[in-house]
Design brief:
- This protein has 220 residues and is an alpha/beta fold.
- The chain contains 7 helices and 9 strands.
- The chain has a single domain, classed as Class I glutamine amidotransferase (GATase) domain (Rossmann fold, 3-Layer(aba) Sandwich).
- The strands form 2 sheets. It has a 7-stranded mixed β-sheet. A two-stranded parallel ribbon has the order 6-7.
- The longest helix has 13 residues, at 107-119.
- Residues 26-214 form the DJ-1/PfpI domain.
């Protein structure tokens, strides 16, 4: 099996109509990339539109020194439409509020996640689980139906002051698709693995999701 992990980022940079910048959450990229590399996995970055994806300014003070080539990695990510899911043993969906606007309705992303799930591992952290909403199993059922998952909770959205800004509740949308959403205390590490699906609730869950993905794969 391939030892490559496709790591997917949002291309959306505006927080609704607030005029504030958003994007992907830096910790949710850097911590997993480091863990994947230490395990000997190859990491490829892609984003919805390709090019340089936007970083949420609120996460910009996270220490990125452990991934010395981060700027080069982000300089020109692949567009999802150019990705062959057959090249990957796993797909990892990075969170950040930007995903709320471009992950859920992206048919290419849904197809990639669905394809990788057939034989490999699908993992998401925080708002990255928006990339699971359109994905399906081989029989066309929602990928998350009947699965135990963790994702950024309604309580956390309220505490972050984003509950009146986001276009929908991720927790409620997952529940509506038949997922069993297990909610940990706000902003504490909460990770759930259900077969080949691994999810984490918030940035603090990044390391745990990455570790679970590494453990789930046959290492090179």
């Amino acid at each position: 099996m391939s030892s490559r992990v496709l790591t997917v980022l949002t291309s959306h940079d505006l927080l609704g109509t607030t005029g504030r910048q958003t994007g992907f959450w830096l910790e949710e990229l850097v911590t997993p990339v480091l863990a994947f590399r230490r395990a000997g996995l190859r990491v490829d970055l892609a984003s919805v539109r390709g090019g340089r994806p936007p970083v949420d300014p609120a996460s910009a003070d996270f220490d990125t020194s452990a991934v010395a080539d981060l700027d080069a990695l982000l300089a020109d990510t692949a567009a999802l439409k150019s990705v062959d899911p057959g090249d990957y043993a796993a797909v990892f969906l990075v969170g950040g509020h930007g995903t709320m606007w471009d992950f859920p309705d992206d048919d290419t992303l849904a197809g990639i996640v669905s394809s990788v799930y057939r034989t490999g591992i699908v993992a998401a952290v925080c708002h990255g689980s928006t990339g699971l909403l359109g994905a399906t199993t081989a029989d066309g059922s929602p990928l998350v139906a009947g699965r135990t998952v963790a994702a950024f909770s309604d309580a956390e959205e309220a505490l972050a002051g984003a509950d009146t800004v986001i276009p929908f509740s991720l927790q409620q949308r997952l529940t509506a698709l038949g997922a069993v959403v297990e909610e940990g205390a706000p902003f504490t590490a909460t990770v759930r693995r259900d077969g080949r699906l691994i999810t984490g609730q918030n940035p603090a869950s990044s390391a745990g999701v990455a570790e679970a993905l590494v453990q789930a794969l046959p290492l090179p």
